[in-house]
Amino acid sequence: MAGKFRFSFGPWNIHEGSDPFGPTVRDSVAFNRKLALYKKLGFDGVQFHDDDAVPDLNLLAPAQIARKAAALRRRLEAQGLKAEFVAPRLWEDPRTIDGAYTSNDPKCRAYALERSKRCVDIANELGTSLIVLWLAREGTYIREAKDSVWATDRILEALNTMLGHDKSIRIAIEPKPNEPMDHTYIPTTGHAIALGFRSSDPARVGVNIESAHAILAGLDPSDEMGFALSFDKLWTVHLNDQNGLKFDQDKSFGSVDIRRAFNQVRILDRHDFGARGEYVGLDVKAMRTQKDAFATRHLSNSRTTFMRLLEISRGLQESKLRAFIAARNYEELDAYILKRLIG
């Protein structure tokens, strides 16, 4: 168990408390103030959407985008931070209401491809080669509206466009089965990896697994991570927690199911995640009832939970585990794990 862990989160994880059913409840925090909190909270990496890095980028020329992104990199370096990845935010533009890459309108699809190329340019300026691709609206509310073969091919076209735009970038697809769409075309890790193998450069397409997204698909996040690790395709993770098959809740890591969280930590550690510089990313949000003064605790608490579960996992007697498994004595194995988790 030689995992080496460093942590990241995105500026959207310090947020105003809005949810799908209600408005904001906390004051906004300025972007520069958010950056100043990273090191204090124990984080080294910053996750970005393209317009987190360069606001209003649709209104800017490529040269202007490059200058603004380069200036941001200097600010990150001054804080001792690095950009982990950049993700094209394709789901908040009116042109992507019917999907981005899978829109039935060719002009909207062209917009999405162009925006994705600008995202790659921003990543280059920020000094990261990793693009995270959350295919938020690549699905339908009604099956007859799109042909799933055609839609899959359009997503593949987008992958190839980005891979061709820059020969050094890597793309980590972030699968999710639903929300905001009823159903999406790339709902699980297996779908994402399969799509990557059809791309023009399979070696540069992997996955980002979010705990809640796996749970929403009725799957265990650690098994999804293990599947990706087996293919050497797990390039980042978004750890959080989820209370059942609801909307994406982004609860603090381990807050719902500590054993499920334990197994995510254990699979990452057992298979040396982080040894090549991968980050343990968090995608967690403060509870809506949380007051402003403590609205970053969800981040530090999640990191603390990870490190405590790592300590527990590394403290297990491996010889005892092997003996239980060899004897197929899973009841005692179960009890042993539970005793360690409850102290």
Q: Which helices and strands occur, and which strands form pairs?
A:
Layout: E1 7-9, H1 31-41, E2 45-49, H2 50-53, H3 62-78, E3 82-87, H4 106-126, E4 130-134, E5 139-140, H5 148-165, E6 170-174, E7 183-184, H6 189-198, E8 205-210, H7 211-216, H8 221-230, E9 234-239, H9 258-270, E10 280-282, H10 297-314, H11 318-326, H12 330-342
Parallel strand pairs: 1-2, 1-10, 2-3, 4-6, 6-8, 8-9, 9-10
Antiparallel strand pairs: 5-7
Helix content: 40-55%
Please, what is the CATH homologous superfamily?
Divalent-metal-dependent TIM barrel enzymes
* Strand/helix succession: EHEHHEHEEHEEHEHHEHEHHH
Give the low-pLDDT segments: none
**How does the overall form come out from the CA principal axes?**
globular
Report, as a whole number of angstroms, the end-to-end distance: 22 Å
Arithmetic mean of pLDDT = 97
DSSP summary: helix tally: 12
**In percent terms, what proportion of residues is strand?**
5-15%
**Major β-sheet annotation:** 8 strands, parallel
CATH class: Alpha Beta
- Gyration radius over CA: 20 Å
Strand order in the sheet with the most strands: 3-2-1-10-9-8-6-4
The CATH architecture can be given as: Alpha-Beta Barrel
- Would you report the number of β strands? 10
Q: Structural class given helices, strands, pairing?
A: alpha/beta
Overall tally of domains: 1
CATH fold naming:
TIM Barrel
